[in-house]
Design brief:
One of its GO terms (biological process) is glycerolipid catabolic process. It contains eleven helices and eight strands. By secondary structure, it is α/β, with parallel strands linked by helices. An eight-stranded mixed beta sheet has the order 1-2-4-3-5-6-7-8, with helices on both faces.
C-alpha cells in the first residue's frame, strides 16, 4: 500500500466533499486551473492521501489537482453491497467526478487499481478527459504471487468482514519488517484508513485485481494522449510488462529512479515534474 510522505495538507489545499450525479466523494484539492485540471484516482487499500505530495508542486505548475477517495474508500461513503463496487460502477463514478470538477476535459490519472478503473472510464467515454496517465498500473491482472496474496486477503475479508481490526492484524503479520512505518502517526493513519474502508469495497476491488483481462488493444484505439509512469521496481506489475504496455498503447513512458510501486509518495517532486511536463504537452480542449 502507498504510504503518504506527509499527512498534513500543504498551504492553500483544502479537503471537502465533492457533490456529483453519483453521490458525494471526499477529495483533497489544490491549485487553480491556469493550465488545466487533473483528477487523481487512488489504488487498492489507498486513498486521496497517497497524492498529498503531488498537490503543491502540481499547483505551482499551474494545475488544479483533485485527489479523490472512491466510493466506500476511506472518507467517501459507500454501501455494504459488493455489486456497488463492480468495475463499471467505479468507472461511472470517475466520469461523474470529472463532470463535477470541471466543465472542460480533465487530465485523468489512476494509480495501480486506480489505473484499471481510469482505463474502464476512458473506454466507456473518453470525452471528459484531456489525457490518461497509468501510474504503476499494468495491462491486466496483477502478478501471480500478488494474486495469491490478494486472494488470501479477499478470503479473510469474506470470512471476517465484521472484524476489520482482526483482518488488519493478520495482514500485517505477513509484512516484512521494513514495511512498518517509522512514524507512529503514519502507522495509525494506515490502520484508521483500513478500518474506515467498506469491506465489500475491498472484496470487490481485490477480485478485480486478480481477474482483470488485458484491455490494452481496446485502449490503444482511444484517441487520447497517454502516459505510463512507474518506479524502477514494481511488485504488482513487473516493469518490463509496463514497458511493453506503453509500446502497445503508443504512450509516453517515464520511470522514476529510486522508486517502486508508489512514485507519487516515494518521490513526489520528480513525479509531479514528469506529470506537468506531459500535461503541458497535451493541453485540454
Amino acid at each position: 500500500m502507498s504510504k503518504p510522505p506527509r499527512l498534513t495538507l500543504p498551504s492553500g489545499a483544502r479537503a471537502y466533499l465533492l457533490s456529483t450525479a453519483r453521490g458525494e466523494f471526499a477529495v483533497h484539492e489544490a491549485g487553480e486551473p491556469v493550465r488545466g485540471t487533473a483528477l487523481l484516482v487512488p489504488g487498492f487499500t489507498g486513498s486521496k492521501e497517497d497524492f498529498v505530495g503531488l498537490l503543491e508542486p502540481l499547483a505551482a505548475a499551474g494545475y488544479r489537482v483533485v485527489a479523490v477517495d472512491g466510493r466506500g474508500q476511506h472518507e467517501s461513503p459507500g454501501p455494504r453491497e459488493e455489486p456497488a463496487y463492480a468495475l463499471e460502477e467505479l468507472a461511472r463514478d470517475v466520469l461523474a467526478q470529472a463532470a463535477a470538477v470541471d466543465g472542460r476535459p480533465v487530465h485523468l490519472l489512476g494509480h495501480s487499481l486506480g489505473g484499471l478503473i481510469a482505463r474502464a472510464a476512458v473506454l466507456r467515454d473518453a470525452s471528459p478527459f484531456a489525457s490518461l496517465t497509468l501510474l504503476s498500473s499494468g495491462p491486466a491482472a496483477i502478478a501471480e504471487d500478488q494474486r495469491e496474496r490478494t486472494k488470501l486477503l479477499v478470503a479473510a475479508l469474506e470470512a471476517m468482514r465484521e472484524d476489520m481490526p482482526g483482518v488488519w492484524t493478520a495482514m500485517r503479520s505477513f509484512d516484512p519488517e521494513d514495511a512498518v512505518p517509522d512514524a507512529p502517526e503514519l502507522a495509525e493513519f494506515l490502520r484508521a484508513r483500513w478500518l474506515a474502508t467498506v469491506p465489500e469495497q475491498l472484496i470487490a476491488t481485490g477480485r478485480i485485481l486478480v481477474s482483470e483481462p488485458d484491455r490494452v488493444d481496446a485502449l490503444s484505439g482511444v484517441e487520447l494522449p497517454k502516459l505510463v509512469l512507474s518506479g524502477e521496481v514494481d511488485y504488482a506489475w513487473p516493469v518490463p510488462l509496463m514497458d511493453e504496455m506503453a509500446e502497445r498503447l503508443g504512450a509516453a513512458r517515464v520511470v522514476v529512479a529510486g522508486t517502486e510501486h508508489s512514485p507519487n509518495a516515494e518521490n513526489p517532486q520528480v513525479t509531479a515534474g514528469a506529470l506537468a511536463s506531459f500535461w503541458d504537452s497535451h493541453p485540454r480542449g
